[in-house]
Amino acid sequence: MTLDLFTRPGIDVVAGAGSPLEARLIEKAGFEAIYVSGYAVAAAMHGRPDIGIYDAAENVAALAAIRAVTDLPLIVDADTGYGDVVNIRDTVRRLELAGAAAIQIEDQQWPKKCGHMAGKRVVEADEAVRRIAAAVAGRRDPGTAVIARTDARAPLGLDEALRRVALFREAGADVCFVDAPQSEDELRIIGELAAGGPLMVNMSETGLTPLLPAARLGELGYSVVIFPTSAIRAGAAAALALLRGLREKGDTAWALPAMMSLEELNGVVGLGELAAFEDKVLG
């Protein structure tokens, strides 16, 4: 199902989650897949920045928690794979068992950074290719999509990023992803010169890449656009505004129009389903 997301006509919009609650909200909003974002997991599950602080086990645990509350296909950010070929094989298989439908591996040095932060460093191209080959060979299910991401644009230039995309396709990557292009023209060039298979693109608000509508990105040659941190950033802004108001005013009556009711939130987190199950079992 996830491979179909990348290969069917048009472009699909996928929202990112770092927690089970965000995943439930994404499903409720009607999306067909969820991007389990490394940035969002670091922020939501650990309250930390996306600079390589959490490891493979924590990533698997975060994925399992999200899988427990949704049946939607999960596209998982697996950072660098957390080691060399044997480690990457292990990471891929553990993520598959935890419910991943697609797994993204990147070419940054460890510890990695969010693709829109300064100071990124990438490994040599042969090591980057070896990571993708290990992920492809290591997956148990051939239907698990391997997404090859390159962060080479910033440290080495767009030409090197495009060269790596070609190498990743030769290594068996199902989908390629050049992170953090810096203009619409660069997005166009990537769409044209990396057009040998499905392409994914990242819209990270206030980051290095200009925000374009999904329809325009589709015209430029992309199959899927992810919005990895939109939900958590909007939620954080709203929560901070409420908490500041609560501290100043001493109540939340003024904020009720912007809040879910208790009943609405109970619905989102599945209280009705669990109550129905309890009634069925207990009679």
UniProtKB/TrEMBL annotation:
Keyword terms, alphabetized: Lyase
GO molecular function terms listed in the Swiss-Prot or TrEMBL record: lyase activity
Record-linked InterPro entries: ICL/PEPM, Isocitrate_lyase_ph_CS, Pyrv/PenolPyrv_kinase-like_dom, Pyrv_kinase-like_dom_sf
Lyase found in the keyword field: yes
Domain of life the protein comes from: Bacteria
Name of the protein in question: Isocitrate lyase/phosphoenolpyruvate mutase family protein
Organism: Paractinoplanes aksuensis
